[in-house]
Design brief:
Distance between the termini: 47 Å
Largest sheet: 7 strands, mixed
Bound molecules: ligand MGD, iron/sulfur cluster, molybdenum atom
CATH architecture of the domain at 200-374: 3-Layer(aba) Sandwich
Number of strands: 26
CATH superfamily of the domain at 200-374: Dimethylsulfoxide Reductase, domain 2
Radius of gyration: 25 Å
Oligomer: single chain
Number of helices: 26
Length: about 750
């Protein structure tokens, strides 16, 4: 049996005293950092630790950045007091210093200019010139079209400052890909069922669970730290893990049950589980009677959704469906049917996650130990600013009567509404893009390109010359998270915590923090009152002093815990609870969804199948990379330079494909991958699908390591299955076939 460390690949608390790259732990070859950095070991006494929270992914683990006497960053380790990481960072967090050291970083502000022959190029300019230019362009657009025609796309810490800027400017159109390309359907489903969103980190009580059901969630490859640790401990304790995945994921390989489901059919399995729970009378009656609304309707609705019915759809045998449902019931309420995170799969995602929510409700896991705890976050006071101007238009105007249950703006919707059409009342003229690599992040790259080509103006704030920067009129180089202050982290957890990020080193090159960029831009546009501080340290110290701490204290301790104020972690037995839904109950039947013209309870409908000779393209994560953002990070590049395409041996045989052979993928719309990808022949994937890790196949040559390595799933995702309830972009309805030669590819494309 493999040891637990093999599975979690997260460093031990504190990671000893070794400097970055000299870690005694040999997880996955991180010892290579040593050779790459050629750094001598330094003892902790000879270094200064600066508190931070990680920005390599959005789990935001708190840690310490150690700097030696020469001012060099030597290591980043987890903060032991932080419940997001318990003192242990994942390989990406440990390797985060590669973002700071990357010689390909954006170094100065750039403005797009044109030569006499019309060719575009970037001119290096001062901050003053870049911000003056940006302010001028935005003013012209506001005067001609209204400020609402400017949208902000953001992901990550800097987004808050640009969001404040945009609202002050007069536009409500602030969006992040973490909604319509990620968690949106989940949050919509949870709000409809339990009256609140799941949020991040997910309040899963894996620590005390007896049964964890993962439907697609590939924890272990998805390295969300605290979850990986708690799941690892749950496995060691003998908790039952049930994984539903067409691929033998890392999690599936550690599970008691692996259900290699036919992709796109999970909703049928979920409905059959609901059927078994109700008709075998193994649901939590007391809980359902007290808290739920619509049980009788649900019972009638699932009457014929038997395991035998689901077998014909999912390929999962009826006895396995029954057995796994009973496992859940035996563990209940200490059972978690994981709500998922990246859930934009097939366009019926809100309904699929509704079924997940309903199943959790039937077993009474919401609000019970070993199920979902009641999260709490800490609220910091805000400095007084003038009221924001009232916008008269919003992105919703582009979609009259549609997506009313979307609780946040749709990035894909704003992208679509940028392409002018006769029937659209709203079209966007300018984008501010901070920390999101839109061409690789939004599905249908051609559509994203077309939208960007229609813009009058686009400013990109990034750390790296990612694909998105090459479409910008102005590029503003942000310094990395290791070189800046940001807002205090107040993410929810079992108890309220705050965490400080402060610079460990000066910003390299001519890069600046987001707060500074947004404030300076606001100053230039006469909106300075919305940033009522000279330096962000003034804001942080003011906020912290109001709650009995100070910047000085947080610089010493990094993270601070407060007492819970909103009751216990779990519901008390028989406690009277009013849920934030129209009925005040957990809604198994949703009048709200029905009022929008959709099914009040989930209904399975079949999705298109791959044409002859094509296979469904599915994708996921690799433990040592985050999306497309880490592909050029030399520490992580050393661990994994490219993705591969997983192909079942039967299929490989049929096509005469060999291990490590380079092939091109062509999708159902004739789009061929720009770069070839290596074949990985493996039983771990069903024959009807192929799998690749997202984030590779970079086309920007300025990324000297990542360019041309592996393939980019986003360019093959031309068919988008939009969720009619909230506008999420289902991305797994694309099919690919194999091209073995470039000539063939050129002839056919
Ligand atoms: N095809 C496909 N598309 C997907 C997904 C998929 O699996 N496949 N996943 C979806 C999901 S779940 C999500 S959440 C989204 C994620 O989408 P994104 O957040 O867009 O992810 P990245 O592609 O990593 O782009 C992040 C950008 O931020 C920049 N960056 C990094 N650090 C900083 C910083 O400190 N400041 C600034 N200003 N910029 C910084 C990076 O250089 C990069 O350009 O993608 C979604 N889209
Ligand atoms: N290392 C690392 N960790 C990350 C990230 C990262 O970039 N790198 N990103 C973070 C973010 S923002 C997100 S949203 C999460 C995403 O990660 P998760 O939410 O855990 O997973 P998904 O992307 O939904 O799904 C990927 C899995 O779904 C399986 N799958 C594909 N089709 C189907 C299907 O039809 N049915 C079922 N049951 N399974 C299917 C795939 O085989 C794969 O194992 O990861 C987070 N963690
Ligand atoms: S899970 Fe890893 S990459 Fe994400 S915040 Fe934590 S250490 Fe950083
Ligand atoms: Mo995500």
């Amino acid at each position: 049996m493999k040891s637990r460390r093999d599975f979690i690949k997260i460093s031990t608390a504190g990671a000893g005293a070794a400097a970055l790259g000299l870690s005694p732990l040999k997880w996955g070859g991180l010892e290579n950092l040593n050779a790459a950095n050629d750094i001598q070991a330094v003892s902790d006494e000879d270094m200064t630790p600066y508190p931070t929270y990680c920005e390599v992914c959005f789990w935001k683990c708190a840690g310490w950045t150690y700097v030696d006497k020469k001012g060099e960053i030597r290591k980043i380790i987890g903060n032991k007091e932080d419940p997001h990481c318990n003192g242990r960072l994942c390989p990406r967090g440990t390797g985060g210093v590669g973002m700071y050291n990357d010689e390909d970083r954006l170094k100065t502000p750039l403005i797009r200019r044109f030569k006499e022959n019309g060719d575009a190029y970037f001119e290096k300019v001062s901050w003053d010139e870049a911000l003056d230019y940006t302010a001028k362009k935005l003013k012209v657009i506001a005067d001609e079209h209204g400020p609402e025609c400017v949208a902000l796309f953001n992901h990550g810490s800097g987004g808050k400052f640009f969001g404040n800027f945009l609202k002050a400017f007069g536009s409500p159109n602030i969006t992040a890909p973490s909604f319509a390309q990620c968690r949106g359907p989940r949050e919509t489903a949870w709000i409809a069922t339990f009256g609140e969103a799941v949020g991040s980190p997910e309040p899963l009580d894996i620590r005390d669970t007896e049964c964890l059901v993962l439907i697609g969630s590939h924890i272990g490859e998805n390295m969300h730290n605290g979850q990986v640790q708690e799941m690892s401990a749950a496995i060691d304790r003998g908790a039952t893990i049930i994984t539903v995945d067409p691929r033998l994921s890392t999690a599936a390989s550690k599970s008691k049950y692996w259900l290699p489901i036919k992709p796109a059919t999970d909703l049928a399995l979920l409905m059959a589980w609901i059927h078994v729970a109700i008709y075998e009378d193994i649901y939590n009656k007391e809980y359902v009677e007290q808290y739920a609304y619509g049980f009788d309707e649900l019972k009638e609705h699932v009457k014929n959704m038997t395991p035998e019915w689901a077998y014909g759809i999912t390929t999962i045998k009826p006895d396995i469906i029954r057995k796994t449902a009973r496992e859940m019931a035996n563990a209940a309420p200490a059972v978690i049917i994981h709500p998922g995170r990246h859930v934009t799969w097939y366009g019926d995602d809100t309904q699929r996650i509704r079924a997940v929510a309903i199943l959790n409700a039937l077993f009474g896991s919401w609000g019970n130990r070993g199920g979902f705890y009641m999260k709490e976050s800490f609220h910091l006071p805000k400095m007084k600013i003038p009221p924001y101007p009232k916008p008269t238009k919003s992105w919703r105007d582009a979609f009259p009567g549609q997506f009313n249950l979307a609780s946040l703006a749709l990035s894909s919707g704003i992208c679509d509404a940028t392409i002018p059409t006769a029937d659209r009342s709203c079209s966007f003229k300018a984008w501010i893009v901070s920390g999101t690599n839109l061409p690789l992040t939004l599905p249908n790259m051609k559509n994203t390109e077309e939208a960007m080509n229609h813009l009058d103006f686009m400013v990109v704030i990034d750390t790296m010359p990612m694909e998105v920067t090459s479409y910008a009129d102005v590029v503003l180089p942000e310094c990395t998270y290791l070189e800046r202050y940001d807002l205090i982290r107040t993410s929810p957890h079992r108890e309220p915590y705050i965490a400080l990020r402060m610079p460990a080193v000066e910003p390299k090159y001519d890069s600046k923090p987001a707060w500074w960029i947004a404030k300076k831009l606001a100053d230039k546009m006469g909106l300075g009152d919305y940033f009522p501080y000279d330096n962000i340290t003034d804001l942080l110290d003011w906020q912290l002093k109001k709650v009995g701490s100070s910047l000085e204290e947080m610089q010493r301790i990094g993270i601070k815990k407060f007492d819970r104020e909103n009751g216990g972690l779990y519901f008390q037995k028989g406690e009277d609870i009013e849920f934030n839904t129209p009925t005040g109950k957990i809604e198994l039947f949703s009048n709200e969804i029905a009022a929008e013209g959709f099914d009040a309870m989930p209904v399975y409908t079949a999705h298109p199948e791959p044409p002859e000779g094509f296979y469904r393209l599915i994708y996921g994560r690799a433990p040592m990379h985050t999306f497309s953002r880490t592909a050029n990070n030399h520490n992580l590049w050393d661990l994994k330079k490219e993705n591969s395409v997983w192909i079942n041996p039967k299929v490989a045989d049929l096509w005469d494909l060999k291990k490590d052979q380079l092939i091109w993928l062509k999708n159902q719309d004739g789009v061929v991958s720009s770069f070839p990808i290596k074949v990985r022949v493996t039983e771990r994937i069903r024959w009807d699908s192929v799998y690749m890790v997202h984030g590779f196949g970079h086309s920007n040559k300025k990324l000297s390591r990542a360019h041309g390595h592996g393939s980019n799933d986003s360019e093959l995702i031309t068919k988008v299955m939009v969720d009619p309830i909230m506008g999420g972009t289902g991305m797994r309805g694309n099919f690919v076939t194999f091209l073995t030669e470039k000539q063939e590819m050129e002839a056919e494309s």
